[in-house]
Amino acid sequence: MQTIHADIVGHWNTRAVWINGKCITISGFVRDLKADEKEEGDNEDIIRECKGVRRFSWGDTSQETYCLSLACCFYLNVKWVMSYFFNPELERALKEDIQLVYDNNQLEAAYQHSEDLFAQEFTGFMEKLGAKRIDE
Length: 136
Fold this sequence. Notes:
Structural class: alpha+beta
Oligomer: single chain
Largest sheet: 4 strands, antiparallel
Helix content: 40-55%
């Protein structure tokens, strides 16, 4: 993980959001996703999930909040699994101005927790399909 600091600031009245000093918008985020070709494919899944989102939001479980958690992952250059961390953090925020600050140690711990949550979810899904675990 490259990021050593995360500072997320949001102004509720305008839904303006800054991530480490960069002002982001939905249209800018989608444009940046389209331009980013690092991942296999072209991020169409994320672009599709964010389609129709007008503003970033927090303090609820809306698509906007989920989109903002993905934007945090993208602009902080952390893996997408970190949305398991950012989404609940943003949902817990009040519907007012926010400032969320995390240092590298907090982000590292959040990454490990997110990986664990993803593994549990994936394992549960595979068990429902009847898949058998193969130990290495």
